[in-house]
Structure formats: structure tokens, C-alpha cells
Amino acid sequence: MIPRSRKTIFHIDVNAAFLSWSAVKRLKEAPGSVDLRTIPSAVAGDIEERRGVITAKSIPAKKYGVETGEPVVKALAKCPELVIVKSDFETYRRYSASLMKILKTYSPTVEQASIDEAYMDMTGTEAIFEAEGDDEPFPMNAATRIKNEIRNTLGFTVNIGISSNKLLAKMVSDFEKPDRIHTLYPEEIGEKLWPLPIARLYGCGEATAAKLNALDVRTIGDAAHMDESILRAHLGERAGRYIYHSANGMDDSSVSGAREETKGYSHETTLPKDVTAENYEPEVPRIVHAISEKLSERLKADGVFASTVAIQIKTDRFVRHSRQMQLPDSTNSAEKIEEIATLLLKRLLFGEQGMFSRNVKIRLIGVSVTKLDRGEFRQMSMFDFMKPAKRARRMQGTP
Ligand SMILES: [Mg+2]
Fold it and tell me: What is the pTM of this model?
């Protein structure tokens, strides 16, 4: 008997999302053309320049050893007939939105985790599916319906992981692909989770895996059977606790359908004394620098990137003005924020049309960053993938 208090959590993950979405779009535009998913193919950020890296690959490409995160040139050396298409974020955003829309018709509690992933709390929806007379028992019937509706109406496939918590649902959706449903309930972890190498544990980075290997912890099961205090002593309090609990399949975070995404960050400073063209330097650049650093830290701490930078000023007559600029790529860099903020301030204040030419004084300066994303909409560049491919795979939003 499954205890009543047990939750039913789904993790939905689009199979090779960028590649599938590019393939589906292509088929729609040219019906009867070759389906990219059936041939060795890959998505890359920057094909012409040959500097690009592979951001998604087809299953046939995988058979040639093509890896996510590797340079296009290297992938082509492994597989000369590899068909490469350029990433198309507008299309990806559209399919992502269509996917979420379908999911929300099955549960009120859907949490989008990245461009191609979501958690659903399906607890309590059993009666709805039973009433419809499906052959399979709940929750299999629900997962089958969701998976098939996505495939039939949107044209791409997903894997669904089912468990009683988010961690296990997430881990099991990564098992055999594509178009599959897997379960990983706490009573199944000995058989399905513990034999896996420790590096496969969600949230176990390479450095942690290396430390654990040195302790002769090779599998997730090895970690689960360690003394928690030993793990804490070697990995630090937080990491040790996390590894021990997650290796044992424990996770009590909830699917938050109501999660309010932060819209942006801003910071303002009242100047020690009113600023004119004469005393702009060095005070204002120093403040802009400090605020930019602060905003960058916030973005990094929350794992997000901003694509709009804005400045705000207040004059000595308490009138507010602001200017903003949209960036081609989102950023979390303090230098970039500072550069744009400085440019906007100079445009607003200096020159013939500038406010200083009208003898306006400034008493407050602010900088803000908005239009946040989790990094999935940035142009992928070599820089993003300088670390080994493993990190690339772990990167949220890099399907
Ligand atoms: Mg995916």
C-alpha cells in the first residue's frame, strides 16, 4: 500500500530539446524533408565562424561520439556527414511556452525548471484520470496521456520521471530515452539508483565526485551507506549533508507552481553632494562601479542573466529620469553592466543635449538590470564550455 501522505511528482524533460525543436520547425516549413532526429545532426551556436560548440545532438550523432559542449570542428572530425543547424532561440521559446501550456492543463502545480524541463505535482489528481476509464493505473495513465498529447500535438517527445519527490523524479527522467516514462520510488532506489556512478547523482559536481572516489565511494549506493558524519567531514557540512540525503533518495522540496520569478535587481545611491559636470569624476564612476559589482553578485548568486541595463537619476529638483538599453546577449558580468550604465549616464548628462548643459544637478544615481533568464537564451560560445563536457551537460537549460 502506498501511504496516503505520499506525493506524486512528475519531472518532464524534452528529449534533445534544441535539436528536436529545430527538427519539428523544419518539418513544418518543408513537409517531407528529412527529419533531423533520424540522421546524424546537431545544433550549434555559431556555425559560420566554426568557433561554435555543439549544444544538442541527435541520437544517430551520439552514436558517432558527438558530444554536447564540444567544438563544431571536433564534432565534424568524428562525423563528417554531421548536419549542423544554427540555434534558433525564438523557436525554442515558442515551443517551451506551448509545452508549459499543455502541462498546466493536467495540474495546477507546474514549476518550470528550465527551457525544456518542468516539475508537476500530480498528487490528488488520481480521481480525474480514473474517471476517464484508462487501462493503466494512476499515475502511469496520467504520464502516458501527457507524453502522448505533447507528441501528437507539438511533434516532439519527452521523458517523464515519476516519483514521490522532485530529486528522484528528475534523476529517473534521464534514464533510457526517448519518449519514455520511468518510475523511481523510494523502495526502488536500491535497484535503480544505487548501482549508478556517484557522478550521476544530481547536484554532485566533478570535484565532489573526485573527492568521493578518493574515499572509495564509486556508486550512489556507496555514498548512501557511508556515515553521514564522515561525508560531512570530507566534503563540508552542506555538501556532505546533501550527498548523504540525496544518495538515500531524500528530498523534501516542493513543486512551487506559484513561484514568483524575480523581475530584476536595482540599487540606488544618494550622492554625498549634488553632482555637476565639474565634480562628476571621480565620485560617479566609483559609485557606478560599486553598484555594478553588487548587481553582478546578485545575478550570479541567483544563477540568472539580465538582458536590459538601465540607469536612474534624480535631479536636485527631485525629478526622476531613466534610460535603458537592451543587450544582444544577456549578461551577469559587472564589467558589462558598468560599461552600459556609464554609456547611458554620459548620454543623458553630457553633450549639447545633456542635462548638465541645462545646469541640472544630480542628487541620486541608480542602476538596474531586468529581463532575466537562466542563461538558456544566451549565445553559446566557447567560453561557456571551457570546462569539461560534463559541466555542460549539468548546466541548467542545456538540453
Ligand atoms: Mg532535455
Answer: 0.67
